[in-house]
# Entry
Amino acid sequence: MNLVIFGPPGAGKGTQAKKLVEERGFVQLSTGDMLRAARSSGTALGKKVAGIMDRGDLVSDEIVIELIESELETHKNAKGFIFDGFPRTPAQAEALDGMLRAHGMQVNLVIRLAVEDGDELIRRVHQRAKDEGRADDNEETLRNRLANYRAQTEALLPYYESQGKVREVNGLESIEAVASDIAAILDAEKESEAQSAG
# Structure
C-alpha cells in the first residue's frame, strides 16, 4: 500500500510518517532527503542534481521521478511507501502515477491532515523550532509556506478526490489520536482490498 500524506506545514506529516515507518514497515520517500543524498553520492545523476541545486534552480519532475524509481528498486520488499514532499502538482501526480503503473503499483490512499486553524499551525511550528532548532520555522517563512501550500498543493486534492483516494483526518487532535485515525483508515482499506480480491 502506497500513501501520500497531505497537510500544511506544522500539521504533523513528518511525525505521522515516522510512526507508520516504525509501526507498519512503510518506507518513507522524502524528496528533500533523496535530493540531498543524490547530491552527495558522486553519481552522474548526483552531479546533475548538485549543479541544479547550486544554481538555486528547482530540480525537474523527471529527475525527482528518477530518484523515486531508484528508491523503489532499492526497497523492492517494502510493505509500502509514503511519498513525502512529492507530488505537489497535478502534473507531478500524473508523472508519479505513470511511473508507478510501470512497476505494477499505484498511490492507494491520500491522507489529508486537515488543520484549518492558522494560529495553531504557527504555535506548533514555533514549538518545533524551539525543540529542533529548525531555521526554516520562523513566522515569515511559515506564512510563505502556508500560502504556497494553499496555492499549489491543495490544488492537487481534486486530482486524487476524483479517484476516491482522499481520506481526511482532523490534524488538530493529539499525535496519538491522529495516528489511531490513520491506522483505522489503513485497516479499513486493507480489509476492503482483501474483500474485493477474495
